[in-house]
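for the record, two folds in this file. i put them one after another cuz i was lazy. first one right below, seq on top, structure tokens after. the second one comes after a little note so u can tell where it starts
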Amino acid sequence: MRRALLSLIAFLPAAAFADDSAVLADIDARYDDTAAVARQLWEWAEVGYKEEKSSALLQSKLDAAGFDIRKGVAGIPTAFIAEYGKGGPVIAILGEFDALPGINQDDVPTREPIEGKAAGQACGHNLFGAGSLTAVLAIRDWLEETGTPGRIRFYGTPAEEGGSGKVYMVRAGLFDDVDIALHWHADDENSAAARTSLANRSAKFRFHGQSAHAAGAPHRARSALDGVEAFNMMVNLMREHVPQDARIHYVITQGGLAPNVVPDFAEVFYYVRHPEAEGVEKIWTRVEDAARGAALGTGTEVEWEVIHGNNPLLINETLATMMDEKLREVGGVTYTPAERKFATKIRESFDGDVPSLESAEEIKPYSRSLGYGSTDVGDVSYAAPTVGLRTATWAPGTSAHSWQAVAASGMSIGYKGAQVAAKTLTLAAIELYTNPDLRDAARAEFEEARGEDYEYSSLLGDREPPLDYRD
């Protein structure tokens, strides 16, 4: 009888050990702090590996709460780990904070760029950092009040946008002793569905030629821009002959300054994506061959530098179904009249049909699917069992990497979505601290999914962090 009772206790949810309503009320009381941190990160909008102020702000909040902090980990000045607690399982919560270059917007529902501002939180990473911070502070209080053995870690992870900051942290072994890793992301809906991502790799291809007067002596020149354009044409012809789920995109970052000067240098920045790392590798080999062919055909020389690379997310449905339950317990985002007015106005800038405003209050049905984005969380998911969620931080219908996302990320709609994430992450962590059978099941699924002979390999090779990739 006693053994049966102990077995039953092992499967009881965290609510049996602590009052979830008190935990959620604690996070509600932190709303102003969440909003203040999110707003400050939004205003700074620091790009990858340049997030000195943003990283320092998050560290200062954690230091004040008694966390032990390791700064500048994995050779990245803005990366850090903050830990609180002792013994028990190690639960990691990821926190991003980098912005996107080339896009900015005021916190208003009509297109109003901020003069002189070169970047914006178009993917909501200011909310990611602030919401995760609120979660770990609430979990710290819960560990302290209940005396539960366990450690909570905040991973300050810079340069997610094309810099693969987490990959270097994984490569350095910083997740090796983590039992479970939790993350979340800004979005226009609430979902904890098990959605994987595309593997990807990027590189800057640099062509070198010979300058001359474009009219007076063109025969003496070899155009580096011709090399770039020939390369792009060859890759564009490839698009017909790659798998349907593959993605290839590029921007010409340098192509010359004056039409009457044949450029002796040009650069193009490429991304290649595929659902599997092996698929990226196969397409990448062909892209490199195209670069060589373009250089040969235009009489130029080419070199390239791999900038970043991410493995696809490894789904863990044991954890995903648990996270889905916690998100449904928390619920979605309810707008005030002022927020409804903001969301209604911003939706006038969208094309086509968009979800109703009420969808921000709903939780999407649980499912398993392929997402077409890429993230360095994928590499974390091969180091430890990992699970995440998305919350409605933007007006329904908003796309990431848009001015509409920047606008909502800097006001209360975004802050409310971050609070939903903080609550859900906190409840999930409490469940994991108090339910060893759940942790064991997640670990078993993780080991099976990785495979018996798994060895970690990053898609960016052995290069050092590209701290200047946003220069």
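(here's the note) second protein begins now
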Amino acid sequence: MSAFDGLFSLVESAIGQPAAHWLREHVEVPQGLLDFSWHPQALHRAWLAEALNLCLLHKLVDAVPDGRRYVQEQAQLGRKVVFDHGAIRTVDWPVNGELPRGRLAFSRLLEPLGFTDVRTYPLTPLNMTGWGYRHMDLPEDIAQFFVSELHPGRFSEGFQQAVSRVVSSSRDPLNAEHKAILHRLQLTRHCSLRDAQQVLQGLYHAFDRQHGAVQEADYQCLLQESAEMAWIATEGNSFNHLTDRVSDLHATVAQQRDLQRPMKDSIEVSASGRVMQTAYRACTVTRGLVDEHGVYREHQVPGSFVEFIQRETDPATQRLDLNFDSSNAQGIFKMTASNA
């Protein structure tokens, strides 16, 4: 079995053979992974990081039909998508059930996989902060994570109380064995294939909604002050979006508009001019909320979406500019407010 066969076997252990096969046919896998050990007793962390990213990409295209269609259309054109980054939202609040507050719920699992926090991005108009987590072994090739925190302390008292009611029931998807494997991985950068299969299950489920039923009144309270917190109330820590890295964003946008896809009106350009981004508008999903009579009623709310990014070389480093941009991020975040 080749190392890449092993990678997709690991992916298959978490999400099944059909999904693993689909990913192999549609998503570019970094050749640089071959520089790192693949052995049943000493699997390098980079392989586990890539396996998790592939699983999460598949989870998102399952949730966003426009995303799956886009990826499959790219394959028909002879191109595999290049996974640039995924984004998640967290809540910086002490009342968070079993979960650590804010981004700590994810730094505890991203860091053992080889990701490191490289830069902070103020998202002040949204009362949020973002952090870019980049992989230390293959920074240009393994998809980054953009992890944001919403700060309820900057909102009204009523909003804060609603946040507490929503997230206080959060459970921890990582059990003691998952945490022990991550601890060993952080110390040695390697784990056994068996441990990788076991911990991947926990990691995969960490990117989901961990809290229970949400009261409709709380959802409306949150929505009045923060579309982002309202989104967290229904979607939790699911991937907010995944991003395809393209070589010509203007051409991609023109093609998608010709196909009448639900595109953002404009392209966001970073202060450096080297990073350009745009996106589909968020899909609409059905989620249940509990009304004032205790009845669980379905509502149409914003879900996740697909983003497109073009990165240019930084002349100072002669490397691809892997940074994010606060202004760009805030423009992209509006995609989940559009259907609110």
